[in-house]
Each structure stands twice: as C-alpha cells, then as structure tokens.
Design goal:
The protein is mainly alpha-helical and about 220 residues long. It is about 50% helix and about 10% strand. A three-stranded antiparallel β-sheet has the order 3-5-4.
C-alpha cells in the first residue's frame, strides 16, 4: 500500500479503548479505510484493495489473542478469519460506513463521530469496570512502571517509607497511594501498614509483597 497522504484516524478509536475489541487485522483494515479516504479510492478498486489485503497478526501475544477471542464470543461476535470478517466487524461496531458517491461508486468511510463501545456493545458491569481499570492504568502508567520496577528490583518484597518510595521513583505521593490501593484490590500485591493506604504520610512505614500467582496473571507486560 503506497503512502501518499496523511491518514487522519479519529483519536477516539484509542481514547474510547476500541482496540480492546479490535483484532490486529481488523485494526489494520480500519487504517486501510483511512487510506482509501485520503487517496479518494472508491468503487471496485477500493473493495478489491480491502478484501485482497494481506493482513497478518504480527504483534499479538498468544494469550492476548485467546482473551480477545473469548471476549468477542461473549459479546456475540466472531473472531475474524479473513478480510470480509474484518470488514463485517467494523460495520457491526459502527466504526465505518459503506455508501455510494454521485457516480454510484462504493465508498468506505469512517463513522464520525466515533461511538463509544458501551453505546454499541452489550457490556456487563464487569466489562464496564474493566474499561475503567484500563483508563486508570493508562493515566497512571508511569507510576505503575516505576513502582512495579522498584518491587521487582527488591525481589518482590519491600519494607520502606512512602518518602523513600517517592524519592526513588519520582512519583507523587498521591499517585503512589492510588496505585498501591489499585494493586491491592487487584490482588497483585499485599501490604502491611498501621493505617489505610489513603491515610499514609511520607514517614509512615509500609511492607509490600508481590503475590506471584496473581501478579504473573495480571501483569503480562511491565
């Protein structure tokens, strides 16, 4: 596929976490539709490019693929096996539209405004909470990385003050407490302290221990 113009992909596709539901090949097809729009490719030529595209899963982790298959199945969708399946999934998700121009040529375009997953898919409370968790992890990604790295460098056991953690990681005290609370609730770590995590001061001591089984399951990539 030649790169001529700039593909203007809606930022909401990332902000709304649609990538949680899009297999890699389906996401690549979404990008291709942006390319067709940019280059004004329509009609049979556009259809041929989409359905004949050699799209492969190159970056996905097997465990992630299996989880995505399970997720799509639970929502009533088929995991795509070919480009026609990819196209159907984008249509089912209301992420694209297929229309015709004045010359009766088929036109593939992005659906703007981009809908939110919760407005299109039948998401249960658990899945809605998962989306909120993902947003939280994205927002505090640096804090997660620094704190988890510190724990791993201490063999999964850390006795420290919050001030020491703050000095070592360069993470704000409020963010440290939020991330620790999240990891405790998730089960990835356990803590021992004299107060609730939210009430800890800089000088307060805390013992943190990684719970290996949960940690390995939840924290695939640090």
């Amino acid at each position: 596929m030649e790169k001529k113009g700039t593909i203007h992909m809606p930022k909401e596709i990332h902000e709304y976490l649609w990538l949680r539901y899009l297999p890699e090949t389906t996401y690549k097809m979404y990008i291709m539709i942006g390319y067709l729009q940019t280059e004004k490719i329509r009609g049979d030529e556009a259809t041929k490019k989409l359905l004949g595209a050699n799209l492969k899963e190159e970056n996905a982790i097997p465990k992630v693929i299996e989880e995505k298959k399970r997720l799509l199945k639970s929502l009533g969708f088929k995991y795509p096996e070919n480009r026609q399946d990819d196209l159907k999934l984008l249509l089912d998700f209301n992420l694209i539209k297929i229309g015709k121009d004045k010359e009766d040529n088929v036109v593939y375009v992005y659906n703007i405004p981009v809908p939110k997953p919760q407005d299109i898919l039948k998401l249960n409370e658990e899945e809605l909470q998962t989306l909120e968790n993902i947003k939280f992890e994205i927002k505090y990604q640096n804090a997660f990385n620094m704190i988890l790295t510190l724990l791993i460098n201490n063999n999964g056991n850390l006795m420290s003050t919050l001030e020491h953690i703050q000095t070592t990681t360069k993470v704000k005290l409020t963010d440290i407490k939020l991330v620790l609370e999240y990891l405790v609730k998730e089960g990835s770590i356990s803590v021992r302290t004299q107060k609730d995590i939210s009430k800890l001061k800089k000088a307060d001591k805390i013992f943190i221990k990684i719970n290996e089984d949960v940690f390995e399951e939840k924290r695939l990539v640090l």
